[in-house]
Amino acid sequence: MKRLWLLFSQSVTVLLAAYFVVGVMKPEWLNKRPTLSGAVSVIEAPSGGSGTVAAGSFSPAAKRASPAVVSINTSKAAERHPRSGDPWFRFFFGDQGNQPQEGLGSGVIVSPSGYILTNNHVVEGADEIEVILNDSRRTKAKVIGTDPDTDLAILKIELDKLPVIVLGNSDALAVGDHVLAIGNPFGVGQTVTGGIVSALGRNQLGINTFENFIQTDAAINPGNSGGALVDVNGHLMGINTAIYSRSGGSMGIGFAVPVSTAKMVLDSIVRDGQVSRGWIGVEPNDLSPELAETFGVKAASGVIITGVLQNGPAAQAGIRPGDVITAVAGKTLASVSELLSHVAALKPGVPARFSLLRREEKVEIDVTPGLRPRPRQAAR
């Protein structure tokens, strides 16, 4: 027992002596506190110095995506009044409409070849389109094609060494996911705002013909249209398109076209010069108890057809007024917007199976969709 006590006393004495020596010679060693896990990590900056990135920071995502987001300036020649050349007219009313109309928006470079995704309403009717890159390069752009039904447009620029954004998987988004909106609001310069995915599949807003919006509370303002909505990895999730606002500014309700839709439009326009969508020629309505009673059908879900275009694809296949369409090509549906989207996704000229409920009888019909007519004007 005495030997153990002696050993313990000697050990304590040595530790105290070591503590005293360190306290005198290297006091900073004693003041160094352990770093909490996940609080702050130190990374080496490219210049050889050091910088800090707080945990949960979206700086890396913004750094990856921002170079590929561009500002778009448009101009449109003023429409001259028929009597603007009359001296007496100019005397009483001044020069009418001599100033060109200018517009502002954003876009996203999606290809090293110079293809840019933006909104149709940003470039619609423009005589000149100027694209300004994040590195201050400026160049003219030409319109490759537009799709008013989704309010998307494809531009092309001719520059070398273009930054390109990575296309993400918008179908994997979930409500609550963090997202960033990048664009040029009010022309103040490129701006990054943050928020979450507030909702998915928003439709029936009266904005576009085909609506499947990502809703976000990331601040989106005029000038952000056509800009990027990205995830925490800096991957493109959507094209910022519209906001709900009573003041003209952000109120926390913004809408973006999913990148899955944008990619389909991009591929179709680059390949075919236009977007080819299916069309069957029916007048659909959401199923209601009143309509179900009127047509004598007993269906809990689906879309009821109240009119069929004579000699249209649906009529030729045997679809009748009063039929309830429950599925298209194996995809169930519950609203008119879903029917429009499912039919539009069909390839014209290729038969597709439609599941119907005719009164109390289940019917399967093959319908060969036609090419959806081009809209006369933008859906906005």
Task: Please tell me about this protein's structure.
The radius of gyration is 30 Å and the shape is extended. It has 380 residues and is α+β, with helices and mostly antiparallel strands. The protein folds into 2 domains: 59-80 and 99-273, Thrombin, subunit H (Beta Barrel); 278-371, Pdz3 Domain (Roll). The chain has 9 helices and 23 strands. Strand 19 (324-328) and strand 20 (331-332) form a beta hairpin. The termini are far apart. Mean pLDDT is 81; it is low at 32-51.
Taking pLDDT < 50 over at least 5 consecutive residues as the criterion, the unreliable ranges are 32-51
The tally of beta strands, per DSSP, is: 23
Task: Walk across the major sheet and give the strand order.
Answer: 7-6-3-4-5-9-8
- What would the principal axes of the Cα set say about the shape? extended
Alpha carbon gap, first and last residue: 92 Å
Main beta-sheet strand count, sense and barrel state: 7 strands, antiparallel
- Structural domains: how many: 2
What's the gist of this structure?
The chain has 9 helices and 23 strands. With 380 residues, it is of the alpha+beta class.
